[in-house]
Design brief:
Blueprint lengths: L6 E7 L6 H15 L2 E7 L11 H7 L9 E4 L13 E4 L9 H7 L4 E4 L2 H10 L5 E3 L22 E8 L6 H11 L6 E8 L7 H6 L10 E5 L5 H9 L3 E4 L8 H8 L4 E4 L14 E3 L1 E6 L11 E5 L1 H13 L1 H18 L2 H15 L2
Parallel strand pairs: 1-2, 1-3, 3-4, 4-5, 5-6, 7-8, 7-10, 8-9, 10-11, 11-12
Antiparallel strand pairs: 13-14
Protein name: Glycosyl transferase group 1
GO molecular function: glycosyltransferase activity
InterPro entries: Glyco_trans_1
């Protein structure tokens, strides 16, 4: 058992909710707790009721809040608790090339600001954040996502896999158009899409139909709004020969990292936070054609831009991986070997612990 000096921090965030901030916050808190940081939880008010099931997090949440110790606000910047009497750290991310004015103002009320990538640090600084900025990467769970996960292939054909929530940011139309341009129905391939869509105003089937994809094109299979456990998700990654994500912007890019951890070669957009861990030699970075206005329902994107993946380059990369499977497998193996050495939740917690130790002197 390692011995640690006393480190304390208030962790302001949302727990017990089925959203990205909550899931990653719980992982960070548990690993910080294991690393010897005594945590206290300040819940961010939210309109959905929380269901906090983890017993250790429940214990942490029950502790009375002390004064004077550092507070990490891990949430959207407009939800930072700025009245804390002590050192204030804002920890947030966004997927576009700027920040809303109220996010900048909230960040500048902190003593320092963390974001998961160096790309994010540059973006925040350019947007007007004048507090000290630190790249504080997130992580993944290596006990669930690794190359030894049992493989249960859904199809014998060369399998491309993409996992995302349907919407403009993930650019599904670019992926689908590239796939049907790269392959014909006589090619031994299949594209599997694991899609979530919780917006009742959106019809995924209608949007796909509007693309007018060829009726005799290569096969596409869709897993729609199906809950998968972590073990099932890892097995799905391992069932693929290549993972593809045409996202226009990511705050971290966890599915990309999980696929890499499973030893699957990855094609993903070479822009935003995933550039922290995706590069040539461990993946196939997808060129960006240009930055375009970030048009989506999210109000935080208004006035900012994100990447437009290069469709022609995606066609080339998908065809290249299909025609060079031995090389692609080697790239996937190199990715798995690298990410387990650098990008797990334990690594993330240790980086945070080191920074907290420096802050507390």
């Amino acid at each position: 058992m390692k011995e640690y000096s006393a480190l304390q921090a208030i962790w302001q965030s949302r727990w017990g909710l089925p959203i990205g901030y909550s899931v990653s916050s719980e992982e960070l808190a548990l690993h910080l707790d294991q690393a010897g940081v005594e945590l206290f939880h300040r819940p961010t008010p939210w309109h959905m009721p929380a269901n906090l099931s983890h017993p250790r997090l429940r214990e942490i949440a029950a502790r009375s809040l002390p004064e004077g110790i550092p507070q990490v606000s891990y949430d959207q910047a407009d939800l930072f608790y700025t009245e804390h009497r002590g050192y204030r750290i804002g920890y947030t991310m966004l997927e576009v090339n700027g920040l809303p004015a109220d996010w900048v103002a909230a960040c500048n009320q902190m003593d320092e600001v963390w974001t998961p990538s160096h790309w994010g640090v540059e973006t925040f600084a350019a947007a007007g954040v004048i507090r000290p900025l630190h790249a504080m990467p997130l992580g993944y769970d290596p006990t669930q996502f690794h190359p030894r996960v049992p493989v249960h292939r859904l199809d014998s054909r060369f399998t491309f896999l993409s996992i995302f929530e349907w919407g403009e940011r993930k650019a599904p139309e670019i992926l689908l158009r590239a796939y049907v341009s790269a392959f014909q129905n006589h090619d031994d391939v299949i594209l599997i899409l694991r899609i979530n869509n919780f917006d009742a105003s959106i019809s995924v089937s209608q949007q796909i139909a509007s693309l007018n994809l060829p009726a005799d094109g290569p096969p596409i299979a869709i897993l729609y709004n199906q809950y998968l456990s972590r073990a099932q998700l890892a097995s799905l990654y391992r069932s693929a020969d290549c993972f593809v994500l045409t996202s226009r912007g990511e705050g971290w890019g966890l599915p990309i990292l999980e696929a890499m951890a499973c030893g699957v070669p990855v094609i993903a957009t070479n822009w935003s936070a995933q550039t922290e861990f995706l590069h040539k030699g461990v993946g196939y970075p997808l060129r960006v054609r240009s930055l375009v206005p970030a048009e989506a329902k999210c109000p935080y994107y208004l006035g900012w831009s994100w990447a437009e993946p290069d469709l022609d380059h995606l066609v080339y990369l998908m065809r290249y991986v299909y025609e060079h499977p031995t090389e692609a497998r080697a790239i996937g193996q190199a990715a798995a070997a690298e990410v387990v050495q650098r990008w797990t939740w334990q690594h993330a917690a240790q980086r945070i612990r080191q920074r907290l130790a420096a802050i507390m002197g």
